Amino acid sequence: MNFFLIKLLISILFIFNKTDGNYCLSYKTKENDVIDSSFFLDLIKIKSNSKKSDSVFLNPKSTEIWFPEPPLVSPANKFNGVPSDAIVLFSGNDLNEWVHANGDSPMWVVQQDLFQVKPGSGDIFTKKKFGSCQIHIEFKTPSEITSKGQGRGNSGIYFMADTDPSGNQGYEIQILDSYNNRTYSNGQAGSVYKQHIPLVNASRGPGKWQSYDIIFKAPSFSESGYIDTPAYFTVFHNGILIQNNVQIQGVTKYIGYPEYKKHLPKLPIKLQDHGDKVSFRNIWIREL
Length: 288
Ligand code: MG
Known about the structure:
Blueprint: H1 3-11, E1 13-19, E2 22-28, E3 34-36, H2 37-48, H3 54-57, E4 87-90, E5 98-100, E6 109-111, E7 114-116, E8 124-126, E9 133-140, E10 155-159, E11 171-175, E12 210-217, E13 220-221, E14 227-229, E15 232-237, E16 240-247, E17 270-271, E18 279-287
The structure holds magnesium ion.
Magnesium ion binds next to strand 10 and strand 11.
């Protein structure tokens, strides 16, 4: 065996990672970056089947990234008040600023100073439309744990989400109970879903109020429909920076890779009904 082969064998370390009960083969580089086996499988698929669209042959796991896992950070216990120029989207008692996609009043449950997802009733959208903005939102995942991974306290805040199902699906900041609940890193709380892993995991436990402060820079498109300037997110989770001006690669997708499609300069903000009783309170927004 020549020197090159020996060096290759030493420098390549295959490890098995347990992921939601399944084992997947990973590759560890000399810099200790771990690349999931699905990355290589996708490369092979792309090379062998480049004429097909991504969504034809990719499964959801193809875009899950499990490493690195963001380290835990304990947040401080204080929220800010509402700025004088903010538009209040919820301060208690009613959901007058929100609608379902069909224009009906939200069926989500209002309980004085909070409201809660009514599972199965559908997503809700702001009546007002927004482009670049700063938003503050407080949320609480269910205190009773009945599932794991993506099934635990899942919701999400989608920016520029069209109520028309054929329109723009939006750009999601994930809401999830990520307290002692491992899932793929680019799908945990505070991720730009399937695009950017949060810098740290600043999650509080289930049943505890948490906050996101999000700065969103809307994308712009050329006359001919191509992306001109992409969108960006900066996100604070419980006051801790978790996304630092990250570039959005396109509309949020569960299966396949994100891509941009020209849309209006202002669209609603959407809260996701993912089947979990996530609660919300104190939502305000400032247009930028
Ligand atoms: Mg979600």
